[in-house]
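Researcher: Please generate the 3D structure of the following complex. Treat every line as part of one assembly.
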Amino acid sequence: MTNLFAFRDPVFVVYAKIWLGILLVSGALLGILALARRGHPTVRSALVTYRSWWVILPLMALPLGLGRAATIAAVTLLSLACFHEFARATGLYRDWYFTGAVFLGILCLNYVAWIRWYGMFLVLPMYAVALLLILPVFRNRTEGMIQNAGLSIMGFLYFGWFLGHLSYLTNLDHALPYLLFLTLSVALNDVAAFATGKLFGHRPLASRVSPRKTWGGAIGCVIVTAVVVWALRSMLPRFGTTQLVLSALIVGVGGQLGDLVISFVKRDLGVKDLGAVFPGHGGWLDRYDSLVFVSPLFFHMIAFYYERGISLSPGG
Amino acid sequence: MKRWTYTPSPLLDKTLAERLTTFPRDPTLTVTGLRFAGMLFLKAFFASFFRLKIIGRERIPRSGPFVLVANHASHLDAVALACALPVRQWHHAYAAAAQDYFFRGMFRSLVAVVFTNAMPFDRREDPKRSLELCADLLHVSREALIMFPEGTRSADGEVHPFRPGVGKLVAGTTTPVVPAYIDGAFRAWPKGSAIPKPHRVRIGIGEPRRYPDARPSREGSIEVADDLHNAVLEVRKCVLSS
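Model: Done. Output below.
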């Protein structure tokens, strides 16, 4: 991903057209539904959610179109926003030492991705955990420190390191098509999970974590995602059948698992949404929960097949 | 085994716009960090662009609650006064800002909250409630307050009579009130002007005053407000003669 402006890249143009097409068609369908069932609460909430997509989409497309630096900056901001939201929901945000240390860790991680230091990218979590564990020692404090250190470690690893793989993905060959694929397929997977969950199945998947999720819905979602991946195969360079199948599983299963992970966090905290950034969606984490889980799996799948000679040294 | 207890932010389900207008706020590292960085930048900008000079800075109390009152003729005033405060007081001094102006729209609110640590003052609908919030800030939270008792920016640059609200806040208390006069801000960026000009700005800080014997009635409040008005005019004399 070396081109400064990717807006003219043929793959970018195709994805932009797909996104626009999906938004316009779904908008038209929703419009017809809204006219037919005026005032119906489900249709009204669907309209609110739909309107937010017109904000979310440019937010994702713009950095990708602007190039590598903008993409890494956007991923950094997204990681910070996700962690900040998690910290606000858990109460960790009141401890500025831990939140500050995690912010610092996220900035360092994305800087390491920027200078292409793969070795440090892989071991940085160790340094971050070490820093978070010695903080109570330096502050000479014990009360509540296991909780704060534990939440910070989880926050750094999950929202910083996991999402940071998107930043490192910009260093690989054909990064733009991969990133465009991820954003589209994960978003469609979310919509598919919502739709199939409503339509199919009775057997609950994890009744305490998310009572509405069913096995039938989950399997239906994986099938839909597999079809999406198959439809996008011509825009996934180097991918053979194995990689396509793995991509479908990573996005289809991983996306739903990411959703469930945030669901259990929310249930334990006793909150409905983690924020109120996007009307109809919730906060950053409510929107990007799937992407957090999928990013490292997708990255390492590509690294395993195509980047085995990746250097561990800076600039590699 | 001790169970973990989570205390989420009380503003978790509020949008950013709602969070900015809610007061008292729920301080976060992000806003505090942004304010710190923003204030460092503004301090350098005011020092170079407006050649900001502060006379009598040592008269500002180092700790505890106080009210900083000044004349108001420009948007630069609140930031200029914040620049006069020591770094550690940036996050503990709140500028009472007109809710109907500074908290209209997300961008304005964000700038007001981040740079001047503004508290929304509802001067139109419910000024009584806003004064109660100010009183809590001073006497319960023991923070500092920056106020412009004229109530709005002066259109001619002159110091107009003070409204009694400030008197109501401090009458019968030992909370120090520091009078200040801002000179040059009106010429640098007057009401109705789109962009600021590089004019010299000076701030004079007067001796703190206390009103433990003043009655907290309307008459007492007016007396305190008048006294503070005169105090600001005295500081003005000193600034103009320096």
